[in-house]
Amino acid sequence: MRSLFHKTIGFCLLGLAVVSCQDKEDPNYQYMPDMYESVGYETYGEYEVFQNGQEAKLPVEETVPRGWLPYEYQDTPQGAADAKANLKNPLAYTMDNHAEGKQLYTIYCAVCHGDKGDGKGILVEREKILGVPSYDDAGRAITEGSVYHVMYYGINNMGSYASQTSTEERWQIDHYVMSLKDKLEGKPEREFEEAGAQENLLPSRADANIYDDADDVESGQSNEKNQTEIQE
Ligand code: HEC
């Protein structure tokens, strides 16, 4: 009885000694630290475990990312001339595309080109940038194709918008720019078209959500299957 009493006191003291060593400023002891210390790889790190020795994988050859299509015209005077003459807007001129284009134009272009496209944006008025043309500049005679080309590669003082906008967004802006040009030239407003099958030619940002797709195709079906199995 007595030894049990001593043992209990002993355990209590030992427990106290262990607990009192804890320092709140320091990380505590870790039991099975796998969950604390991640074994994840550093982005762009070099690791032998990967086939090409690096964490970042290259895209599979002959594939393109969703939401992106290769642009066939070169960044040369010849490429610009070809795009100007031949490249057409694949999006229907719908009210939605026009509205979307207006919004994007206001975000990306209006600071220089002005809300009306007359080349009198706020940066021009404050003399931060020079030489911004009006869209009805006869010498330039812009076309759907030339506008897209310029957004893709940029031109002199104007940077490229290829990394900030998707293919679809650039074509929406393009519609809006051409409507500003018409207005500046005093032409009647172009009538809106119905959304046609053409619109599906372009992969949109929404298609780029692989998780949505995976849901529909795989887990959607397998869930159903699981459910029926349970019911049976
Ligand atoms: C930082 C100011 C700036 C912004 C922002 C800007 N531009 Fe420009 N843009 C210019 C300048 C400067 C030129 C004239 C370049 C030259 O020819 O030297 C130009 C020229 C153009 C031209 C005429 C090109 C040609 O064929 O001669 C078009 C079309 C155009 N921009 C469209 C756009 C669109 C669309 C956007 C938005 C996505 C945009 N710009 C954003 C400054 C800007």
From TrEMBL:
This is C-type cytochrome. Residues 96-181 form the Cytochrome c domain. It comes from the Bacteria. GO terms for molecular function: electron transfer activity; heme binding; metal ion binding. Residues 187-232 are annotated as: Disordered. SUPFAM superfamilies: Cytochrome c. Residues 219-232 have a biased composition (Polar residues).
